[in-house]
Amino acid sequence: MTAITIAIVDDHPLFREGVSRTLSEIDDFVVVGEGASADDAATLAASHGPDVLLLDVFMPGGGIDAISEILARSPQTKVLMLTASEEVESLVTALKRGAAGYLVKGIGSCGLAEAVRTVVGGSWFVSPSMRAKMVEKSLFVGRTSLTPRELEVIELVAEGLSNKHIGRRLNLQEKTIKHHMTEILSKLGASNRTEAAIKWRQRA
What we know:
The chain has 204 residues and is an alpha/beta fold. Helix content is 56%, strand content 14%. Helix 1 links the parallel strand 1 (4-9) and strand 2. Helix 7 crosses helix 10. Mean pLDDT is 88; it is low at 139-143.
């Protein structure tokens, strides 16, 4: 079993220590470093090149502002935001900067482990509550003509899920997801699912 290496950067010591202890108890997770600032995050990325770096939004130097430097120093590292901020703008900005996921503090140990494994596997992960807020915001501002179901599908596409996995998540047949994708591509003026995901993230 290949270990997943993790670094944790948060300026609240008790919270950081709790997360570190929780993750260290999982067999294939290894916490390789901790920090409290954007500078610490960049240093950890350069010195350890962790598979995943958990990063708070609000910290000295700014978590979101640190993403580019982290990825410049360790391109293979997956940045996973773990924050109290439930602002959609923070989520969208973090993803645009290169974060692989966005979690709201209060998530349980199982959810946190799932998120870590998901981003290591190459997919995006966003807390369900934040996905719901993005859908709600999109419906409110009326920036697209996507139906509620299409909004759910494009959110999961933006997380990196395949049609098969989206079907399982929404309890729909894969051919139904393909139909929704055809409509989504047409409405967003996209030629493929990757372009659709990018356009959707820019609209949010």
